[in-house]
């Protein structure tokens, strides 16, 4: 049972071990399910981008993106565009 708990903790929190600083921004795909994380980001002053549906409050996030947060296709499309924009911005900044 302890091995199962350790595996679960490693799965969800293992990447935090390698973080040396706070993230520059957080992207949240489901505001209702990640409300605790959203509150922690706000407390730490980390800007947030969130996909907001009709059942979400866009005032709780810094950059709301109106989208269907339940549809895998819409989430993939928006995350691919955000990833491309971030990579492009980093490339321009390093010049």
Please give a quick description of this structure.
This protein has 95 residues and is an alpha/beta fold.
Molecular structure report:
The chain is of the alpha/beta class and 95 residues long. It has helices at 2-13, 35-44, 72-94; strands at 26-28, 48-52, 63-66. Strand 1 (26-28), helix 2 and strand 2 form a beta-alpha-beta unit. The mean pLDDT is 91. The chain is globular. It starts with a helix and ends with a helix. The chain has 3 helices and 3 strands; from the N terminus they run H-E-H-E-E-H. The protein has a 3-stranded parallel β-sheet, with helices on one face.
% residues in beta strands: 5-15%
Q: Estimate the mean pLDDT confidence.
A: 91
What value does the Rg take, in angstroms? 16 Å
Spell out the helices and strands N to C.
HEHEEH
Largest sheet: 3 strands, parallel
Question: Helix- and strand-based class?
Answer: alpha/beta
Number of strands: 3
**In whole angstroms, how far apart are the ends?**
52 Å
Output the keywords.
3 strands, 13% strand, 95 residues, alpha/beta, single chain, 3-stranded parallel sheet, 47% helix
Give me the secondary-structure topology:
Elements: H1 2-13, E1 26-28, H2 35-44, E2 48-52, E3 63-66, H3 72-94
Parallel strand pairs: 1-2, 2-3
């Amino acid at each position: 049972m302890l091995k199962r708990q350790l595996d679960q903790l490693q799965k969800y929190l293992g990447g935090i071990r390698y973080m040396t600083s706070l993230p520059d921004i957080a992207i949240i795909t489901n505001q209702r399910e990640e409300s605790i994380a959203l509150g922690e980001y706000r407390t730490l002053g980390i800007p947030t981008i969130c996909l907001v549906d009709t059942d979400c409050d866009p005032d709780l996030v810094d950059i709301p993106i109106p989208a269907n947060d339940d549809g895998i296709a819409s989430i993939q499309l928006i995350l691919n565009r955000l990833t491309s924009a971030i990579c492009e911005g980093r490339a321009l900044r390093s010049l």
